[in-house]
Amino acid sequence: MNGGNHSVVSEFVFLGLSNSWEIQLLLFCFSCLFYISSMMGNLLIVVTVTSDPYLHSPMYFLLANLSILDLLFCSIAAPKMICDIFKKQRVISFGGCLAQIFFSHAVGGTEMVLLIAMAFDRYVAICKPLHYPTIMSPQMCILISVVAWTIGLMHSVVQLAFFVNLPFCGPNILDSFYCDIPQLIKLACTESYRLEFMVSVNSGFMSLGAFFLIILSYIFILASLRKYSSGGSPKALSTLSAHISVVVFFFGPLIFFYMWPSPSRHLDKFLALFDAVIIPFLNPVIYTFRNREMKTAMRRVLGQMKGFRKII
């Protein structure tokens, strides 16, 4: 046995998404397309917000941070999944599995806090516009980023503590394409009921609580818009609808993973694929297509890049 985790398992084997060559080819093209699009779209948002002075506001600062998190998140499991699609033996080391769990929960926890902060930012901008510059100051924005990362890292450490000392002495096959705690706990050579409950409380109920908190805040904002602006500002409504869409897409799979007692394996894999490669792609698409300022700024940045290339 290994001393640290009292385990004889040094690696885990993924069953992957499919063994059919036709489906593998389709998944490879699909995953590559969305992964590259996610990376380019989120990187373009970060570059646009950073370089365009018209976007140096708290809302776009938080949006750029969200894009950075999506860049990190889609690079945790997707690249290995793409490389493993045509392999007969899809293997990950014990340390690699730990790393996937740590970074996915750290980034996911940070993004959860950031989405709450974005809801707060919209509340202050719409319901307390005169106090907005004071409340959402640059110092407050930096503080939000630091707090979000701190909570995300703390959440990840707590999640990892559930898993790192479990004894693994038997099967090491995961019917998935990435490592996550609910599936790994079932492979442990120990009673797992209490651990599964603790993981559900730590991730599932936290996700569910944060989701309802954000949705309630947006309902309150929409009610305030209708009350004070006779139907609501179209620009504010468009921004809110984009935020709500991102929140639903982000929290939906999380709540399913940690709250559903015995999910269908096919549905579980579909949502895992959706979470890994599609959600990071949807965020820049939603915020770009629903925001005129962002589209205009992107055109300016792309125009500057073309002009720079001509000079070179």
Describe this structure in words.
- The chain is mainly α and 312 residues long.
- The model is unreliable at 1-5 (pLDDT under 50).
- The chain has a 3-stranded mixed β-sheet with strand order 2-1-3.
- It has helices at residues 21-51, 58-73, 78-84, 94-127, 132-135, 138-163, 181-185, 193-228, 234-259, 265-289, 292-311, and strands at residues 11-14, 90-93, 173-174.
- It is globular.
Task: Write out key terms for the chains shown.
312 residues; globular; mainly alpha; 74% helix; 3-stranded mixed beta sheet
Percent of sequence in beta strands = under 5%
- Our Rg estimate from Cα atoms comes to 21 Å
Strand order of the largest sheet: 2-1-3
Question: What about the largest sheet?
Answer: 3 strands, mixed
- What's the end-to-end separation, in Å? 60 Å
Enumerate how many helices there are, as a single number. Answer: 11
Low-confidence stretches: 1-5
Structural class: mainly alpha
**Total number of beta strands:** 3
Succession of helices and strands: EHHHEHHHEHHHHH
Using the alpha-carbon principal axes, give the shape: globular
Helix proportion range? over 70%
Compose a concise summary of this entry.
Helices cover 74% and strands 3% of the residues. With 312 residues, the protein is mainly α.
Secondary structure: elements and pairs:
Blueprint: E1 11-14, H1 21-51, H2 58-73, H3 78-84, E2 90-93, H4 94-127, H5 132-135, H6 138-163, E3 173-174, H7 181-185, H8 193-228, H9 234-259, H10 265-289, H11 292-311
Parallel strand pairs: 1-3
Antiparallel strand pairs: 1-2
Helix pairs in contact: 1-2, 1-10, 1-11, 2-4, 2-10, 4-6, 4-8, 4-9, 6-8, 8-9, 9-10
